[in-house]
## 1
Amino acid sequence: MTLDLATRRPVLTFGGKLRSLNWGLVFVVCAITAMGIALLYSAAGGSWQPWAVRQLIRFVPGLVIMVAMAMIDIRLWLRFAFAIYFAALVLLVGVEVAGQVGMGAQRWIDFGVFVLQPSELMKLALVLALARYFHSMTLDQIGKPLVLIPPVLLTVLPVVLVLLQPNLGTALLLLLGAVAIFFAAGVRLWKFAVAIVAALAMIPVGWELLHDYQKQRVFTFLDPERDPLGAGYNIIQSKIALGSGGLFGKGFLKGSQSQLMFLPEKHTDFIFVVLAEEFGFLGALVMVFLYLIVFIYGLVITLSSRNHFGRLVGVGVTTTIFLYVFVNVAMVMGVIPVVGIPMPLVSYGGTAMLTLLTACGLLLSVSVHRDVRIPRSGFGEL
């Protein structure tokens, strides 16, 4: 860190930023991804093709992007937060207009060179936009109901667009991530209570708006045995694999449910089950522990930030990662209905991996620039 002679303010140099980078978080991210690549290798029957090698190829540039994002001045993220949000919103609208249909849903845009899932990018864009909005607000201003209309609209627009795809799981993650930022910003608890009561009152309407396959998932969650060879097949096989792993597992490449092709979507939504079957409860515990370290890093980084924008971004990013992990693990265990949420950095998928590495890059940026002071009414000097 050097001193700007004109402003007498500390200036972070590139070398200083690189030295202050939270390398512990970078290491844990690499460790989780390495475990994911090994599981994809196993899910393919001991082959790098078709998933493991592609995941590795995606991770290398993704890691570079993550570190590069950490170097970007956090005030730039503040300045362009709304622009990033509206770009993601345009992409979501583009999905409705010319999106690619896959597995009964219209969630992707094919750019020829790569296929993009805008709903994944919106998770971070919404975090930035809400953090930008609440950054300039005092607690007294946040206490006024009319002030909450813009951030509510910022949240509702992408949630509705994602529901239209349809993608209930991602829509819920967007909503819950936004709620965390609203809470961290200082929104009064009674307003959350009013929102919860209103949501409960809307359940009958929401049920009627659900697609048939979404209703079927709820019925399957309540009673998987009602259709064991149909809608209940996935979760039944998942529970069998989880239980058969025992304490120490069956061994690498020796999972019967995954290797004999009984376990569906084993390289995406149910990759955690492959881990539990082959390495048992202890193996699953190791991965959960690594994610716990990520959460702890996120909380420490958030609390150490001296600017409000960084704290809100930290809350949003950490909550988003937590929700990914919690929903995926709860889903494959049958605790909640199957909603199609991947295991972060482990499940196969380009856009999901890019989103999580970008999220970690934002978190690292908050850490590197934790001592940067940003006026609540402006951007500060760049």
Note: Residues 136 and 378 are 7 Å apart (CA to CA).
## 2
Amino acid sequence: MRLYIGLLHYPVYDKNHRKIASAITTTDLHDISRLARTYGVKRFYVITPLEDQQELAERVLRHWKEGFGASYNPNRKEALELASVVSSLEDAVSDIRSTEGESPLLIATDASRKEGCLLDYEKATEIIGSDRVTLLIFGTAWGLERSVIRESDYILDPVKGPTDYNHLSVRTAAGIILDRLAGRR
């Protein structure tokens, strides 16, 4: 499986539907890295153009990969070694291209249906299982900005519960989605 994931902090929307760069949440770094390691993801990209946020993420990652945290919790070190901080989605795609020798298929996630080519979980699982290089993009704040949706090859069907309420944390949504796409059956 050649699955990569990206947590995009820009461009995303705020609650007023304005394009913003969202802040990094250190819990996301830990939890999504552990998800990535559990489900066999090759790399977890933390994507932000904000230098102070890059520095924050790098400092946290250094502590657990090289500092006291590395010896204190080797399991966390193993998971966080999958995390890489990049400035843009294009940088993540470029890194994957240099590693894999081909550009990844881009699958965006979104809590609501948008325009574009929707992809159900059965077909997405087939794509990932076919060994096609794939980058699954998760948005922060109030979701991926329209340009990211347009650039993506597919938009994954949203996670939906039995109610009309649909505002999961990105960590929760990522866990559900990765289990559906890469979990053992």
Note: The longest helix spans residues 51-65.
## 3
Amino acid sequence: MTRDQAAKVAPLDPGADAVAEIVNEHGRAMYRVAIAVVRDSALAEDVVQEATITAWLKLDSFRGDGSFRGWLLRIVHNTAVSMVRSSRERPWDPEWIPPGTAPSAERQVVAAIELDAAIRTFARLDPLSRTIMALREGEGLTYDEIAEVLGVTIGQVKIRLLRARRRLAAAVERGEP
């Protein structure tokens, strides 16, 4: 497929503006996938930048078999996994999760404990499960789309999502990691 054909399917102008279009249309989703894998905001930004360049350079390889968004998020996921493998584990900064509001001081304390438990549990999930959670809960992708993006079976998506949700729910219920 040529870049012109890819642009019709994508719909992106394969010229210099394609990078801006990728970032404007998909940048937030790309970042959420990256942060789910790498757990570091600075590294996630690097992943998004690298994946954007890779997508632009390989725009002519987009065949149109699936959605452009799925193709792009798969590039982000693969880039993030590669960066994690090539760098040592770094602590996760949970600042990207907005703090909850509560009507009373007691509820604020309970919410803080629950949030801390969820963050710690989410951080301990394996990278694939974190990514599946981010794609499903954050991006609203279907099981089929997630399986396509990550190159796994729908069964793997469902079971990992179920297990991750159960772990998070149990941690929040106990109020401890």
Note: Residues 134 and 177 are 20 Å apart (CA to CA).
